[in-house]
């Protein structure tokens, strides 16, 4: 008998368009994991509303994100791909877990402190309990591994602490999850400010490339990308963050190693290099954009995917939720 595959859970909020950074930093890795792990990939719309959203945009981006997951190569048969709000167990477990999470530990979360600063006029309770909902996402499915960026590590750690506490008070109930951080280099930085992550929040500017961006805009953004005052294409994130970021992107888009890239641009200026990176990204994103558009034109198909995904997810989630409800002392619901 084969040993059972490890379970993976991850998700992205539909609070902005997916970017080249989302692809290289997350979704591309998810695709690479889909054969060796038992994976759930969620569109976490409930997390998105911790910051005020325009309802029509949220709905559009949620469906777009689903189409993009698939267009990037996530196979909806191999993986459970679904929308968080379609599986009520997330909200239900989140309430219970909130009663096993301390005010003090939530107050110390870096993302809460950051977001409170950025949204000073809307420091709502959902923003505060965000990590509890995220813990519910992960723990409902008994996930072993959670692929996330460095900035989300603290959230996986608190999920682990909450799980450990619950297991301690009752009896083993939850698998203790671990963050699964992709190799460094997969983190894509802003093209205009290579000290900050390429993020959905700076969208609209040339620092960020969205997955649906058209080729002209992509080329323009790469031509404007910040480099440095030297002329050599050399990988050195500390001293040459802009050039190193472009090398990372080029390496991901072409499969070339850093040494090959350095050799290719030896003695040539940054102009040639930036054009080559831009062109490689245009080609990388072309099939993703086309496939996304094709999928978005087929609402029935998308609906069948998210319906099937939610059903599969709900079945797994319910098992955990039933156990939790029993352990905390809720009277089981009458059958029939
Ligand atoms: N907080 C994550 C982010 O901002 C998104 C997220 C929500 C998530 N629930 C999750 C990631 C569960 C991994 C697992 O990127």
Strand order of the largest sheet: 1-2-3
Distance between the termini: 38 Å
What small molecules are bound in this structure? tryptophan
Mean pLDDT: 95
Instruction: Please give the oligomerization state of what you see.
Output: single chain
Number of helices: 13
Structural class: mainly alpha
Order of helices and strands: EHEHHEHHHHEHEHHHHH
Kindly state the number of beta strands.
5
User: Strand content of the residues, in percent?
Assistant: 5-15%
pLDDT under 50 segments (min length 5)?
Answer: none
Shape, principal axes of CA atoms? globular
Rg, Cα atoms, Å: 21 Å
Q: Report the major sheet.
A: 3 strands, parallel
What is the helix fraction of residues, given as a range?
40-55%
List keywords for this structure.
336 residues, mainly alpha
Per-chain topology:
Layout: E1 7-12, H1 20-33, E2 38-43, H2 45-48, H3 55-71, E3 80-83, H4 89-98, H5 103-107, H6 110-118, H7 125-140, E4 145-147, H8 153-169, E5 178-180, H9 215-223, H10 241-254, H11 258-264, H12 270-296, H13 299-328
Parallel strand pairs: 1-2, 2-3, 4-5
The site of tryptophan has 13 residues, from strand 1 and helix 7.
């Amino acid at each position: 008998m084969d040993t059972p595959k490890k379970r993976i859970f991850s998700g992205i909020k539909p609070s902005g368009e997916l970017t080249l950074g989302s692809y290289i930093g997350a979704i591309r890795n998810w695709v690479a994991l889909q054969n060796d792990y038992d994976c759930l990939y969620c569109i976490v719309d409930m997390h998105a509303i911790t910051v005020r959203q325009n309802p029509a945009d949220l709905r559009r981006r949620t469906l777009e994100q689903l189409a993009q997951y698939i267009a990037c190569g996530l196979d909806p048969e191999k993986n459970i791909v679904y929308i968080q709000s379609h599986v009520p167990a997330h909200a239900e477990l989140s309430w219970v877990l909130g009663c096993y999470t301390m005010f003090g530990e939530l107050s110390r979360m870096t993302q809460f402190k950051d977001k409170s600063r950025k949204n000073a006029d809307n420091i709502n309770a959902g923003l505060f309990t965000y990590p509890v909902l995220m813990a519910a996402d992960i723990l409902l499915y008994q996930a072993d591994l959670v692929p996330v960026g460095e900035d989300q590590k603290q959230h996986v750690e608190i999920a682990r602490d909450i799980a450990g506490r619950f297991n301690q008070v009752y009896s083993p109930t939850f698998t203790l999850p671990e963050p699964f951080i992709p190799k460094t280099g997969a983190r894509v930085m802003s093209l205009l400010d290579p000290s900050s992550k390429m993020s959905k929040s700076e969208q609209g500017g040339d620092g960020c490339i969205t997955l649906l961006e058209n080729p002209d805009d992509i080329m323009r953004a790469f031509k404007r990308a910040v480099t440095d005052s030297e002329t050599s294409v050399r990988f050195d994130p500390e001293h040459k963050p802009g050039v190193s970021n472009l090398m990372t992107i080029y390496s991901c888009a072409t499969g070339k190693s850093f040494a090959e890239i350095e050799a290719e641009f030896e003695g040539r200026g940054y102009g040639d290099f930036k054009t080559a990176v831009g062109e490689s990204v245009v080609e990388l994103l072309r099939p993703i954009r086309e496939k996304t558009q094709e999928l978005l034109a087929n609402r029935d198909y998308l609906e069948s995917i998210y319906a099937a995904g939610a059903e599969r997810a709900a079945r797994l989630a319910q098992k955990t939720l039933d156990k939790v409800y029993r352990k905390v002392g809720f009277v089981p619901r009458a059958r029939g």
